[in-house]
Amino acid sequence: MNKTLLYILLSSVFFCSHLRLVAQDHQDLSSLCNKREITLVITDSGLGGLSVMDDVSRKLKESGCFRKVNLVFVNALFDKETGYNAQPTKKEKTDMFDRVLTAISSRYSPDAILIGCNTLSVLFDETSFSGSSERPVIGIVDAGIKLIGEKLKADSLSRVIIFGTETTIEENIHKSELLARGIAGERIITQACPQLQSYIEQNPASEETEMLISVYMNEALEKLDVNGGDVYISLNCSHFGYSEELWRKAIGETGYRSGGILNPNSFMGDGLTGESCRRRYSNTKISFLAVSRVEMPNAVTIAGYFREDSPELADALENYTLVPDLF
Hints:
Mean pLDDT: 91
CATH topology of the largest domain: Rossmann fold
Distance between the termini: 51 Å
Number of domains: 2
Strand content: 15-25%
Number of helices: 13
């Protein structure tokens, strides 16, 4: 192939990939600054996204951008016995999530939707909603890619293990975008963690959860040279952060040097508190609502995680609203 033509083709691939990321990274949230009260919906296929809601509530309260913020957590799980990762085709996953997004838009008319779930974030671009809705939608995948990229760029010898669900790892968006940013492929390891999110929801600190984290950690580390640079542990399922100490323990018990834990849950709310609208109000009132189409047997367990530092969120979760026809 002609070298000039090859260069053009490769440049086009990079540009299109970069453009996709930028388009998701910079949703137009400027109109929010003109409002006194806003409604934000955080959605996840389980309870991991509640940690995103917690972080968002803290940042919005501290910022003083709004007089009142209504935070709604919508559980996108459609069947308590199974989930998106168990669906046999990508189309089935995407069609179901499309129904969820449409229902969120019509029921709650949110000013923005935050997808606090890596599995659902990697499906978003494939939904009909993504091409038809004018509502800002922020996916957690972009926060994770940015966080990983910054760390690996700052230390050229460092490596990262991207832990996620089967769907997140199969879609391979994190690694693809990092490659497009110039990160060498041998510095990026991906590791699927089947069933881990379910065990974490049941008990983030259980022996079973600890065992699974240790197994997946060791499987991933087998792909890395122990004599290389620091290894970052990237938690790319929103549930995984509930067991952060077990991840630290797992890497600490190996001969590898840890660069630290990377948890994008704590960065999704950054774009909601721009400098141009900070300190408009001396006090921001935050309301919490949690809704689900299916029963959430682990609600009390996860509520306990928030009880001390965010009692209002814990109350909302323990007293969640069951809506069988939610979507």
